[in-house]
């Protein structure tokens, strides 16, 4: 699905990441841990192709295609979707209109918004006056319409209360998985309205969609099981292994101790 080879990334002329190698196979979810300001968001932004992030070395492949120099819109069309930490307010464009741009039908938009608790926000400008939790839900609503094959989530728990974390987690899980609809049909669209007959239930079946998630607290992992964890440190992927064990070690001993003492045990 996603393959990164010897990637180095600079911002404003300063190298932030160097020699990153990462392979996410179809159906896998990987999680990135690491201190603030260490380069996790830089890696995610480089994958999405944001202009500020200059790739100075290496390659990014998605579904076997070299996208290293592809613009953002081409990557989105290929099936990469992202939820960033601080999305902009888009005045004059309603959330309902944005859902249509992302590919949802009017019926799908209504059903998805009801499930996400955003049906009263559909005719408001995107993110204008939204709380932190509402912005997260708005971003996920747009991703549900886009139905990306690779989902990038940058700190989905930040600025979100306990109740909204559960909804954010279930929505992210929903995007990552195809579902058998209540009507008995298999829907390849995570926003299929048949799947919203009971908004308290999220019927999932494993799919080939993949994910990359940045988290500090790990709450999202209660709802989106991860296959592999990575610690980003000093601009590299310093350690990889079991995400639950890794998170526990970080909480008890800190990043450096886990890198120096734990990587031998976790190495695959």
From TrEMBL:
The GO terms describing molecular function are:
ATP binding; ATP hydrolysis activity
What the entry lists under InterPro entries is as follows:
AAA+_ATPase (IPR003593), ABC_transporter-like_ATP-bd (IPR003439), FeS-cluster_ATPase_SufC (IPR010230), P-loop_NTPase (IPR027417)
Give all residue intervals belonging to the ABC transporter domain: 2-259
Keyword Cell membrane present in the record's keywords: the answer is no
User: What keyword terms does UniProt attach to this protein?
Assistant: ATP-binding, Nucleotide-binding
List the source organism. Answer: bioreactor metagenome
The beginning of the lineage is: unclassified sequences, metagenomes, ecological metagenomes
Keyword Cytoplasm listed? The answer is no
UniProt name for this protein: Putative ABC transporter ATP-binding protein
Concerning PROSITE patterns, the annotation shows: ABC_TRANSPORTER_2 (PS50893)
